[in-house]
Amino acid sequence: MNKDLTVGRPESVLWRFCLPMFASVIFQQLYNIADSLIAGKFIGENALAAIGNSYEITLIFMAFAIGSNMGCSIIVSRLFGEKDYGRMKSAVSTAWIAGAVLVGTLTVLGLVFCDGLLALIKTPAEVFSDSKLYLDIYVWGLPFLFFYNISTGIFSALGDSKTPFRFLAVSSVANIIMDVVCVNTFNMGIAGLAWATFICQGISCVLAVWTIIRRLKSIPTEGRHVLFDRKLMGQIAAVAVPSILQQSFVSVGNIAIQGIINSFGPAVMAGYSAGVKLNNLVITSLTTMGNGISNYTAQNIGAAKPERIRAGHNAGIKMVWLICLPVFVLYFFGTRFVLGLFMETPTEGAMATGLAFLRIVAPCYFIIAVKMVSDGILRGSGRMKEFMVCTFSDLILRVALAAVLSKTALGSLGIWCAWPIGWAVGTLLSQVFYRRGPWCRAAAVNVNEEA
Questions:
Q1: Side-chain half-sphere of 184: how many Cα atoms within 13 Å?
Q2: Taking a C-beta distance cutoff of 8 angstroms, is the pair 53, 258 a contact?
Q3: Rounded to 5 degrees, what angle do the CA atoms 54, 58, 62 make?
């Protein structure tokens, strides 16, 4: 059901809107976690290392999908806030057409260049063939990945975070069951994990697109809307392109870090693969909450209510910190338990790597959570230059420090120390840019009206 985010107490509105999004990303991450968990438990440490190695390359494709999601979502949110439903429908169809062209191009490029990327990050010979097999199947599923992400952005723009949650809950549970069946019953190995994800992601995509079409038909407009609007395409691109660049550079940075990690051998690769899956579950959850705040911001800007954004920022900080607290406790004090979910009989080196990584980054989740909230506001208000500055500063520091510190006596420990420094600098910049926004100068009004 569509939801207007421009009325009601900002804190209550954000909790009701963002909590289903948080639950959705938990289920979405189960795709990746199930692959890694089953690979480590039932196939072996090299299979776990191969999935972790492939994951950094899949993030490049995910960057384009997420950027397309945000470009569509922000513009549709603003038009929904303005109640300009005809142009809103045009924005949706324009995003879908542009997405089809983009995903077709990326599929061809992926099939041609994935081998080269695996070689570029110095993939060890013992995990190369499994990494390539997993990536080849993943690339064929890119159309499902793209159209599902764009559809999720449309749902969010309409204030509906519950429908995509239902799709993901069902498909994620099905994915886990299919993973076990493909690996244990059919002995398909790492290919079984990839095909299970392909099928379940495809089902989610078809259901999401079908529901969006029905939802848009139920919104009355005068006359037929334009299928492809060049002006709206420009507005979508103004948000999508910087988002894609930001996500792509993050992916390239992660690949560079993966290359540094690979030089320490399969044990460190496996330990990092398990640790980074758990870390990415948190970061992706916080990013999704930030995306929700972007939709909230865009709708309120469309409705000419900038004063509600400050209240939304404060509510968002409380919300993400409440999420970080139990995760920090689990990752910091229950590290061996959570890592043990991924590794049946881990080597000493793999377990030591996972322990060091999680215990260094977990206390800093409270810092990066603040950045996600203020980044969400910058993106939702169209301040993409400031948004990119914050992200690039964080990324450049992490990659540079990982390269330098890994050459010192710290060894692989130096790589993990780069995370808190990059996060702290990026958060500081993001907060500075947020506090310069017009919402901080808006006249004080009562935004705590009853819903």
A1: 10
A2: yes
A3: 160
